[in-house]
Amino acid sequence: MEETTLRNTALLCSIIGLILLFYISNQIQATININTITIDDVGKGFRVCGTISSKRVSNNHIFLDIEDQTGSIKLVIFNTTALKLNETGVSPYELRAGIEICAPGIAEEYPKGTGELELVYRRGDIVIT
Amino acid sequence: MILELLLFTFLGIALGTLTGLIPGLHVNTIALLLLGLATAINPYCLAVVIIAMAIAHTIWNFIPSILLGAPEGDTALSVLPGHKMFLEGRGMEAIYLTVIGGVGVILLSLVLLPLLIQVIPFFYQNIHTYIHWVLIIIALVIIFSEPGVRKKAYAFMCFMLAGILGFMVLNSFTLPSHVMFFPLFTGLFGLSTLIISLNRKTSVPEQDMGFPRTEKRLVLSGTIKALFSGVLVGTLPGVGASQATILTQQITRRKDHREFLISIGGINTVVALFSLISLYTIFRPRSGAAVAVQQVMTSFGLNELILLTAVALIATGVSSILLLKSVRRIISMLQGINYSKLTIGIIIFLIVLTYLFTRHMGLLVLFASTSIGLLAPLFGVKRSNSMGVLMLPLIIFYMGI
Question: Which candidate among A61, B63, B74, B246 keeps its CA 20 to 30 Å from the CA of B53?
Answer without folding.
Answer: B246
